[in-house]
Amino acid sequence: MGATKNKGDMADSHSQDVLPPWIIPFYKEELLPTLVDFFGAQSDPWELSGTDGLLFSSILECIIMDICPKEHYVPVRSGTDKLYTVSRQQISNYHCKFQLTAVTLVQKEVRAQQKHGQNAVVKFVMDALAPQNGAAYWGETKGSNGPEGTFLSDYIVKTLAEHVKAMEGSLLEEHHFPVGTFILAITAVTHAFRMFSTGAYINGGAFSKENVSTLMSEWSDGIAVKTFLAKPHRQDQLLKKIKTFLENPNPQETMHKSSGLGSTDEHTHGLKQPSMWRGR
């Protein structure tokens, strides 16, 4: 993964073929990043429609009103509106990227353990998944006073970095901490490790609401996540570590020196609730 996102990952050329010509110049660079940014900050990233069933269409209309006001676009929630249907599908595809990234990261570490045998892989996975000090979740598993850096593991950082890359170009003027995608990243990392829990890879199924919603709820309702979300300085530490990774994605370079694991008060930058679109 590099510091510059390949926007083709979010919107392939085949899906763009059916879009209205007037939106194509803005689709990958502004529309999709803004959708990712907005829905990533929601508590449930799977639920795009909201309680009234109109959230996605309302947000899509607002974004396009800012980008192409002369088009007077009003979404139609059906297959006849290709802009609406393709955009929803692209957000779903973006969610799947989380699992692909997490599996790739875990698989790399598992391969290093395989030379020691299947039991070594099982132990590595079980140790990593230990909530109290597992490498899947902690930035430092053996700090001077025990594990340090809740949810600052390289696995979570690099998985959540997919969100930061995908929202590059967003029209949101202000940004809220991406609560939903943060929990999504933790879920993806946990799910990825579990696929290797027998010592060999076993496909855990699609990364979908139907398949991982229970696991995601366990995290979102748990005390660890609630404590993390109640402390802005921890969120800033995570965002700072992601920023460091994206600026220098070389896997040989350690991120711990820039992670701020020992700091409890330093805020890198405050993130606020999305409130308006950036003026063009």
Note down, in words, how this protein is organized.
Residues 64-213 form the DUF6532 domain. InterPro entries: DUF6532. Residues 247-280 are annotated as: Disordered. Strands 1-2 form a two-stranded antiparallel ribbon. The radius of gyration is 19 Å and the shape is elongated. It has one domain (14-258). 51% of the residues lie in helices and 4% in strands. It is built from ten helices and two strands. Helix 4 packs across helix 5 (118-128). It has 280 residues and is mostly helical.
Descriptive terms for the model:
280 residues; mainly alpha; elongated; disordered N terminus
State the helical fraction.
40-55%
**Helix count, DSSP H or I runs of 4 or more residues:** 10
| Percent strand | under 5%
Q: Tell me, what's the shape?
A: elongated
How many domains make up the coordinates?
Answer: 1
- Helix/strand order: HHHHHEEHHHHH
InterPro entries: DUF6532
Organism: Hericium alpestre
Region (Disordered): 247-280
Domain DUF6532: 64-213
